[in-house]
Write a structure and sequence with these properties.
Layout (H helix, E strand, L loop, with lengths): L2 H15 L4 H13 L1 H6 L8 H5 L4 E10 L5 E12 L5 E7 L5 H17 L6 E6 L8 H15 L8 E4 L6 H15 L23 H16 L8 E4 L4 H12 L3 E6 L3 E4 L6 H10 L7 H4 L4 E4 L11 E3 L9 H9 L4 E3 L8 H9 L3 E3 L1 H4 L2 H15 L5 H25 L6 H20 L3
Parallel strand pairs: 3-4, 3-5, 6-7, 6-10, 10-11, 11-12
Antiparallel strand pairs: 1-2, 2-4, 7-8, 8-9
Helix pairs in contact: 1-2, 2-5, 5-17, 6-7, 8-9, 8-15, 8-16, 12-13, 15-16, 16-17
């Protein structure tokens, strides 16, 4: 059996067993297709059944989350936690609170997390969790009651050396605080390492808030260096206006870029003079408002409905940082037409498979999410280290460690792509580099 036959066999098996889980199937296909040259080169590893095992989560947990809203009405949501692979260490991955959350999305995110965490070189397995609860429009009291109910079940399955959740879409400092507080109360322990993304005054780390966005920019900086370029004066567009987007904009501006557009789920803004980040932070982080409010503060800026049209804005660097599948083939064609040279993913799989292929065929440098947005989990790992040591590193110390990790991730992806004779294919490089590390640990630990 060669690599192609082995991969096809496993993909067909995944489709048969998970026929209604579209997002998960797509994630598996994206990774496994990249592994064909790896198994052609290492056919002796097929007998270990690595792919058969790696596409099946070690544990999939689902549970009811009942809570009472401010009108004293009982609400019921679904909660999930997938503990996908622990070959490299305790399960690690965020919690997502969003109406779109279902088992397929949690499994897709957990599967991606396994390889992302491996790329950081930190001892972390892969997991993910969340709920179809929507914190938007909810009062602090409602969010607190939901988080407490969610943690009442989740606490049975997590621990500093077992499974360490963090934040994701819909789960920020407020939610992490409520989750940690309730865990501490019902377990009666001060295990700060059980959650990451905590506040600085109770075990959090400097740079954790900025980490995914900053890390994305550090990764793209390496991509630019490879073509003898830099961020200086480059036109950049960033989809989204949440945590990742805001801090990607911040770091890109610090490096001299002209970030001219960002978005939310309703639409997008274009400010040719450069996005005024403090206004965006006020709207999104303080007022929890809509990005359309930006033009009230900056009349020279323009607001457009339909956030997917942001890819029509002329740029040299595009950073999809909102959600999965937001950049499709039509968007990719617009980016190529308008001269975009680099696309790097700040969100998890925000670019559809056909869009990725189109960008690559048109010589657009493409940074896949499992490598480019690994800064968040990398800094979560650094937060875990600080919790274990009972100390705090300075902002500068953590930022330097983050930058070094992102440099190593880029080098691993690039050098692996070169090894497999496809030097510009960072998707292939990242997938093989991450998989190889997990696979070697699984083989060493036997069939478990």
């Amino acid at each position: 059996m060669n690599g192609q036959e082995y991969v096809d066999l496993i993909i067909n098996q995944v489709i048969r067993r998970n026929s209604n889980e579209t997002e998960f199937i797509h994630a598996v296909q994206e990774v496994l297709h990249s592994l064909i040259p790896y198994f052609n080169k290492n056919t002796h590893l097929i007998e270990h059944g690595i792919l058969e095992r790696i596409v099946e989560p070690e544990r999939m947990i689902s549970f009811r989350v009942a809570w009472v809203d401010d009108a004293s009405k009982v609400q019921v949501n679904r909660g999930f936690r997938v503990q996908f692979n622990s070959a490299l260490g305790p399960y690690k991955g965020g919690l997502r609170f969003h109406p779109s959350v279902n088992q397929s999305i949690i499994k897709f995110l957990g599967f991606e997390q396994v390889f992302k965490n491996a790329l950081t070189t930190l001892p972390l397995g892969g997991g993910k969790g969340g709920s179809d609860f929507d914190p938007k429009g909810k009062t602090n009291g409602e969010v607190m009651r939901f988080c407490q109910s969610f943690m009442a079940e989740l606490n049975r399955h997590i621990g500093a050396d077992i499974d360490v959740p963090a934040g994701d879409i819909g789960v920020g400092n407020r939610e992490i605080g409520y989750l940690y507080g309730y865990y501490k109360r019902i377990r009666d322990v001060h295990t700060q390492g059980v959650l990451t993304g905590k506040g600085l005054n109770y075990g959090g780390s400097f740079v954790r808030t900025q980490a995914t966005g900053y890390g994305l920019i550090y990764f793209v900086e390496n991509m630019l260096k490879d073509i003898d370029s830099s961020f200086d004066s480059k036109r950049v567009i960033v989809s989204g206006s949440g945590n990742v987007s805001i801090y990607a904009i911040e770091k890109a501006q610090q490096l001299g870029a002209n970030v001219i557009a960002c978005s939310d789920s309703n639409g997008y803004i274009v400010d040719e003079d450069g996005i005024k980040l403090e206004i965006v932070k006020e709207i999104k982080e303080v007022r929890r408002g809509r990005i359309s409010e930006y033009v009230n503060e900056v009349p020279s800026a323009k607001y457009y409905e339909n956030s997917s049209d942001i890819w029509s804005v002329k740029c040299e660097i595009a950073l999809p940082c909102a959600t999965q599948s937001e950049l499709d083939l039509i968007g990719a064609e617009l980016l190529v037409k308008n001269g975009c040279k680099i696309v790097a993913e700040g969100a998890n799989m925000p670019t559809t498979a056909d869009a990725v292929l189109y960008l690559q065929k048109n010589n657009v440098g493409f940074g896949p999410g499992k490598a480019a947005n690994a800064g968040g989990v990398a800094t979560s790992g650094l937060e875990m280290s600080q919790n274990s040591l009972r100390l705090n590193w300075t902002f500068e110390e953590v930022d330097e460690k983050l930058k070094n990790i992102m440099n190593r991730i880029y080098f691993a992806a690039k050098s692996t792509a070169i090894e497999y004779n496809d030097p510009n294919n960072l998707v292939l490089g990242a997938n093989i580099a991450g998989f190889e590390k997990v696979a070697s640990a699984m083989i060493a630990q036997g069939i478990i």
